[in-house]
Amino acid sequence: MESSKSKSKHKKERVVILGSGWAGYAVARTLDPAKYERVVVSPRSYFVFTPLLASTSVGTLEFRTILEPVRRLPQVDFFQGWADDVDFDTKMVRVEVNTSSDMGSQTVIPPPPGQATENPSKKGDVFDLSYDKLVIACGSYSQTFGIEGVRQHAHFLRDIGDARRIRLRVLSLFELCSYPSGAGLLTDDDKRTLLHFAIVGGGPTGIEFAAELHDLIYDDLARLYPDLLRFVRIAVYDVAPKVLPMFDQALAKYAMDTFARHGIDVRTEHHLERLRPADGDLGSRHGALRIKVKELGDDEVGAGLVVWSTGLMQNPLVAKLTGKKLSAAGGTGEAGQRLATDVRTGGLVTDAYLRARTTSSEGNDSAAGAGAPPAAAGRLLEDVFVIGDCAILENDPALPKTAQVASQQAIHLAKRLNRGDVSGKPFAFRNWGTLTYLGSWKAIHQSSADELKGWVAWVIWRGAYLTKSMSVRNKILVPVYWAISWLFGRGISRF
Amino acid sequence: MESSKSKSKHKKERVVILGSGWAGYAVARTLDPAKYERVVVSPRSYFVFTPLLASTSVGTLEFRTILEPVRRLPQVDFFQGWADDVDFDTKMVRVEVNTSSDMGSQTVIPPPPGQATENPSKKGDVFDLSYDKLVIACGSYSQTFGIEGVRQHAHFLRDIGDARRIRLRVLSLFELCSYPSGAGLLTDDDKRTLLHFAIVGGGPTGIEFAAELHDLIYDDLARLYPDLLRFVRIAVYDVAPKVLPMFDQALAKYAMDTFARHGIDVRTEHHLERLRPADGDLGSRHGALRIKVKELGDDEVGAGLVVWSTGLMQNPLVAKLTGKKLSAAGGTGEAGQRLATDVRTGGLVTDAYLRARTTSSEGNDSAAGAGAPPAAAGRLLEDVFVIGDCAILENDPALPKTAQVASQQAIHLAKRLNRGDVSGKPFAFRNWGTLTYLGSWKAIHQSSADELKGWVAWVIWRGAYLTKSMSVRNKILVPVYWAISWLFGRGISRF
Fold first, then answer.
1. CATH topology of domain A2-143+312-424
2. Coil, strand or helix: which one is A353?
3. Domain B150-310 belongs in CATH node 3.40.640.10
4. Please, are residues B311 and B145 in contact by the beta-carbon 8 Å criterion?
5. Which residues of A touch B160 (CB under 8 A)?
6. Is the ipTM reported for this complex over the cut 0.90?
7. Cβ–Cβ under 8 Å, residues B151 and B144
8. I want to staple A275 with a disulfide (CB 3.0 to 4.6 A). Which of A149, A452, B189, B208 is the partner?
9. Distance (Å) from the C-alpha of residue B308 to the closest C-alpha of chain A?
10. Which residues does UniProt call coiled coil (chains A, B) (predicted)?
11. With an 8 Å Cβ cutoff, are B46 and A494 in contact?
12. CA A180, CA B248: separation in Å to the nearest integer?
């Protein structure tokens, strides 16, 4: 930090931010442009307001109403690409450019090591970017637990391109089943398979998607395809004994009662073992899938769409960075150190001020996540901060990987940086509570202070989303679309 | 018609409408549901409000605000697919289903005969659909005049998928050129090539796209990529000695003066001879093109985007139908007849009441378009109507292939059908005038009654679009987006 401080007399310190999600975007937005030159590096050019992602996947909202382009932040520099590597000694980030039109917008699960087929579109040009301070906020990847076929055949719901694919698929399935039945055409059984919508994972994302899908089908598609309703089935599968584990018994029961009334199947203690295309035309031409569930034995379940909404794994960049040895000049004052990782999650360990912790190369990693006390021997990289899904706080390792945590960490860090006093106050998470939409204008909300359900929760749910994180543009557009969808129905153009 | 009339005592006559463009959609919307069962067959599930297509291609409007899903028309049945064949004797349409997610939304130019590689995704299931009356409104295809590379490398602007591709491409090109220049990276010359936007065709579509693109670049992208403006060039190429031939001298000059002030190059009397990918990485990885223009000799012009907006050709279905011999039972009362076509355009000839004309198989086709009088010998298919781009009126063969003509024919036909009196009144085209947007809130308008230019024309232009053809939903959303784009800038998320 010494050298960069002397530089700052002449020009502003450059803060390079890796990622444009809840953590990275909020840092870029909150940092004072009078004090810092801000540079964002991210494979996608916008921030996605993820709590409304499920709403766009069913057409209640238009996709762009939940996107905030990074370039719209005044005076923020942006490079679309992946941070391919970081040299902590020379304080340089190697950026691999992402020039594809919309590749960054869709969840891609890398194949397991060994089967690694290099993604040819990811072989971009590279260039180096120097930093004075670095904020690592590149998030996590989806975790498929190595279950056969999930990577290839399931839909994810983490990015805007995922939402678009799901929306097209749902509408296509109804269109496909609307043709007359008959010789060479789909049978009623085929239609029953194709209109089975399976959601794997009973956390808030899976439950909300099931709820929004139910609204789309029963509010809108029921009028357009009345003959098809008898074939429709929405089912949520989870390995745990109950869904929505973060809610207390009464609220979770309320959710399940609501789902039961809506006819949404919830199958707890069900383990998905394999996903494969259905045999014949139904699989090859119409994309039908067969789901093998441990509890159902050899009887596979047919489905037209499988949405995978469970599990996170570490970003490949994090794994790469933790393998690197640092020189003494790298800021720790001791050669042979490397970034400390949490053994259980693979996340990067930080101190209470969100600074990257190092450890000696021999491997003295924190098993903080498993309950053990963090390694005290580690030093710090004073100019490298880690926030969001890829960070593990050594003094609060059990923090969930949520938008709330990422956003609070980002704002805390940016404000401390603005004061020039990073170690003035440790980060402390304040739980604002959890909200889950259940369909038909109902939601449940739980925090330490209160719990709410029904339409009151719904009003809070929608209201809260409007005031946080969005640009004025989207603060206008989102309610406009809510009103339009309520008055005229959801957007059903298959485009 | 006799048999169907006797049926109509028991149930409504079924009108099958082929196409969901200006002609087909307006017929479906205007036909009285109390009198007719309406069935629309179209490869795409929505009507596109084409005058605003260029606005969506630059992000002023959201794509879905100019789409009207056919299924939203109450009581209209819809099958997504191509009319593959028609049996006029048994009054059946063979429908090939289109189950792709969004294939129908993009302009596809079939390869020339001989090179015909069958499109595998177009090999759908088929089923038959009977009709009492048939309305052929399947429009026209883009014409590339066999110029090498146009089909493969040019962008078209006729459907919503085309607009999306253009939008992604324009934004991607700016992003691509925003990376630092340097070794292994793009040079300034590369950036000059990539930011050359070439529009081929100086009709209203090409001119409006150039104008809207200019607005996007100078209103919005200039602020986000200030360093790139020096590389930008917009050019319009046309083979004719002047652009906008439908406007009088003064208005066309006004348009050209406006363009000159905006720095948009207009190159008249330029003949494009070939389009090919640029050599090396610039072509293979970044999609740069080389344009060969006859007047420029061997010096090819580099470009990042070529938009093709000139020329229409006949729909392949029309060619197929005109080859068919009809039996006497087919309605003409004389065996061996076939549908009459206009030799110059390949269009289907109709009488003044928009009914399909037949001719004897020996070929007595009308050369109406070339000024010759139509073949009088032909008979009529009383229950088959042809409107829009694929129709040629024998008494007014020079009608342009425009939305105005298609829309007026559709409304005329539907109203006459509603009265049960098709031959009560011949179709007469009423010219509402032509409007072309020139950028920066200016437009020109010309009709027989008046001519307007500047912002007055702009107000009329925008106002007129709001009141015609759109659902209430889009009548609200389009002005909302105009206001949002005006206040906060256009949508620039690269998605």
1. FAD/NAD(P)-binding domain (3.50.50)
2. coil
3. no
4. yes
5. 495
6. no
7. yes
8. A149
9. 20
10. none
11. yes
12. 53
